[in-house]
Design goal:
The protein has 229 residues and is of the alpha/beta class. Helices cover 40% and strands 21% of the residues. The protein contains 8 helices and 11 strands. α6 crosses α8.
């Protein structure tokens, strides 16, 4: 599963340079030229990180970052600000708006790739290593395998994505609608009870090992992944 980045910049040559650089490093790139098109892209795709230019024709990058961080559907997506403004006050404004890092133009392709990887490692355990672990349960992101001790667990693709999301966000409660947005994508129209069906399948696949107890129902709220009783 490749890492998806949304690049928001009104200058086509900058977007082209970023796309060329990052595609060579294995990233999937989505582009937007202004705040409105960025919102449209976010409604159709869920990127792992947003590269956001400070100066956009219809809204400032700082205002857009603040808007993304207030929206439950996008609040957890890390943001790196791209700008020619290098003053300390401007950097502080960007960070206070919710940006996770700040790169001043012009920047080298190597610096950009290194900053992106560093922010992804900090923001999500799924990017910190090639596997996710919870006690004896292990999910290998490279081989797409799930094991409990020495025993393999057979999962369908949706159950795998669901388990990956849960293991990357342990101890947090997610409603059915949030899980639909995070795992299925906001552009996929399925009923909320679909989540319950896949939760049951996931629990059934984990039942022989006893790790189905990690997938917990929180009455009136949704589901969470927890290794605690």
């Amino acid at each position: 599963m490749s890492t998806k980045l949304l690049v928001v910049d009104d200058e086509a040559p900058i977007r082209e340079m970023i796309r060329f650089t990052l595609q060579r490093n294995g990233f999937d790139i989505i582009e937007a030229e202004d705040g409105r098109s960025a919102q449209i892209q976010l409604s159709e795709h869920r990127p792992d990180l947003i590269l956001l230019d400070w100066m956009l024709p219809d809204v400032s990058g700082v205002d857009l970052a603040r808007r993304f961080k207030k929206d439950n559907n996008t609040s957890e997506i890390p943001i790196i600000m791209l700008t020619a403004r290098g003053e300390e006050d401007d950097k502080v404004r960007g960070l206070e708006a919710g940006a996770d890092d700040y790169i001043t133009k012009p920047f080298s392709p190597r610096e950009l790739s290194a900053r992106i990887k560093a922010v992804l490692r900090r923001s999500s355990p799924a990017h910190a290593s090639d596997s996710l672990k919870a006690h004896e349960l292990e999910l290998d992101l490279q081989s797409h395998r799930v094991t409990v001790g020495d025993n393999a667990v057979e999962l369908g693709p949706t159950e795998f994505r669901l388990l990956q999301f849960f293991m990357s966000h342990q101890e947090r409660v997610y409603s059915r609608s949030q899980l639909l947005d995070q795992v299925w994508g906001s552009n996929v129209y399925v009923e909320e009870r679909t989540v319950d069906v896949h939760i049951r399948r996931l629990r059934k696949a984990l039942a022989d090992s006893g790790t189905e107890r990690f997938i917990q129902t929180v009455r009136g709220a949704g589901y969470r992944f927890s290794t605690k009783a």
